[in-house]
Amino acid sequence: MSCSKWRWVSSGMETVGALLLLITFFVQRGWSLVSIACAALMLAGIALSAVKCRCPVCRRYLSGRVPLSATRCPFCGASLSEEKAAHK
Question: Are the C-beta atoms of 78 and 85 separated by less than 8 Å?
């Protein structure tokens, strides 16, 4: 999968995990098995973002400051839709 797709997947995991965590906190008033699973989903999205969301050419981390709709790396200008590029 390309970098831009990984960014969408990780952002979705983070958002869904955070929303479900908030909902379970309001409904159950504390930690439960469901809220722990939601927190784990949110943390997995953050970890996925840290591991997979890198430029395919310069390998720099694309942080949350880079918009999800970005098609080019803000550091080297390479296309983010490339599966793998020659790493030099």
Answer: yes
For 58, the token pair is 């310069």
**CB-based burial label for 49 (10 Å; 0-12, 13-18, 19+):** buried
Question: Which amino acid is located at 79 in the chain?
Answer: S
Q: How many folded domains does the chain comprise?
A: 1
Task: For residue 9, give the DSSP letter.
Answer: H
Q: What range defines the domain where residue 43 resides? A: 1-88
Question: Mapping DSSP to helix (H, G, I), strand (E, B) and coil, where does residue 72 land?
Answer: strand
The per-residue pLDDT for range 13-46, each reduced to its tens digit, is 999 999 999 999 888 887 889 889 999 999 999 9
Q: What is the pTM of this model?
A: 0.74
